[in-house]
Amino acid sequence: MLKVYNSLTQQKENFIPNEAGKVKMYVCGVTVYDYCHLGHARTYTAFDVISRYLRWHGYDVTYVRNITDIDDKIINRANENKEDFQALVARFTQAMNEDFKALGLIQPTHEPKATDVIAEIIALIETLIANNHAYVASNGDVYYDVRRFSSYGCLAHRDIDKLESGARVEINDVKRDPLDFVLWKIAKPGEPKWNSPWGEGRPGWHIECSAMSTKVLGDTFDIHGGGKDLIFPHHENEIAQSEAASGKKFVNTWMHAGYLQIDKEKMSKSLGNFLTIRDALKDHAPEVLRYFLITSHYRSPLQYSESTIQQSRNALERFYTALRGLPETEALSDSEFEKKFTTAMDDDFNTPVAFSVLFELAHEIQRLRETDLAAAAAHGALLKKLGDVLGILQDNPERFLQSGKESSDDDIKKIEALIAARNKARAEKNWAEADKVRAELAAMSVVLEDGANGTTWKVG
Ligand SMILES: [Zn+2]
Questions:
Q1: Residue 27 alpha carbon to ligand 1 centre in Å
Q2: How much distance in Å is there from the Cα of 23 to the middle of ligand 1?
Q3: Spacing, Cα 364 to ligand 1 middle (Å)
Q4: Cα–ligand 1 centroid distance for 209 (angstroms)
Q5: What does the DSSP assignment read for 127-165?
Q6: Which spans in 265-335 are helix H?
Q7: pTM of the model
Q8: Second label for 1, Cα 20 to 30 Å away, from 115, 154, 177, 327?
Q9: Cα 29 to averaged position of ligand 1 atoms, centre (Å)
Q10: Which residue, among 85, 66, 69, has the nearest Cα to 77 in the 3D structure?
């Protein structure tokens, strides 16, 4: 039985979807005004593993991850660049797709954009005004009236008065309550705008997600996810808007990924301590980065450092070394390893325990390799199958082991030419030449292993 931690109830619960066999999941996507950083990578890799495991479990998963393509940050950045906001959005959407593909993220089932649901947003705001949950303020903007929603604070687990004392009170505020948030913003001259019953303007951020999620998944759906920083106010506000409009429960299970930290601080654009995915990919193989991102439990903080990345590379080398040279075969069925893996993942997607099972499996492969190659191969195929659930171990073992972080395709060609030269020298019993070439390879940190089937190598 799959158990999932629900941020709303603050406990692990048996996961029972609304419709048997089907899971409807929405994850708040990226506001596309800059390159994605490793904090984004952490969140979306976590939900990628979650969606893969749900599918592996046999569920028909509809995974929706939106794109926020209109927002103050986008407008400000486009103005700074003297660029049209749509050109900026197109550029960074493409960059995001490239980065996510490199990390092995499976494309979501639907990827709605905020500007595609303006009509739905307007209809939602009209409903909220009609049932007195929203009001037009003196400056023309439309606000949500938090005091009219009795369970406001249910996800943050804070009383509305406590939340209010922490809220920033702006000067000349036109709101009834400092926690009230904007649903429709009247456009200033030169800003992107859409027609609405309240004048030309644009939607607020929170209402976008309520409109996009319910448009695709219906009024009530199974899982809503995002980074922990979205719990308050973003997800709290989504609940308030959606439930006030529909009168139904919005989401059954709220899931939140922990922070990626550098020096114990959250990695974020606002703190300026972020590393973009593409910068990290300059120094590290994509699979190493992906492995690092899923090593800690998705709700726990994850510490970024060069040494944790190196540990991830070492771990993958152990797995690929176990897989190396095994004949292709069917995966072992009914295995204790698979049962233990499933038990770990059924416990709120516990990847650290799942990895420990994969390490046991790799150890078993190495033990069997000497005595029973067929059994080793069946265990190897199982390791690959379980690795796929986590989005790892699908590379060719030789290729992975030979692609050190410094190795480009040119390096690999050069290394292979040197190995061929050394083999030729050895065949000709020209030991001096063979040793010279070996030393040259050692200088490139290449470790050679001469075996019965020829020479293999890896970057040490
Ligand atoms: Zn959202």
A1: 7
A2: 18
A3: 44
A4: 5
A5: HHHHTTSEEE-TTS-EEE-GGG-TTTTTTTT--HHHHHH
A6: 277-283, 286-293, 306-323
A7: 0.88
A8: 154
A9: 7
A10: 85
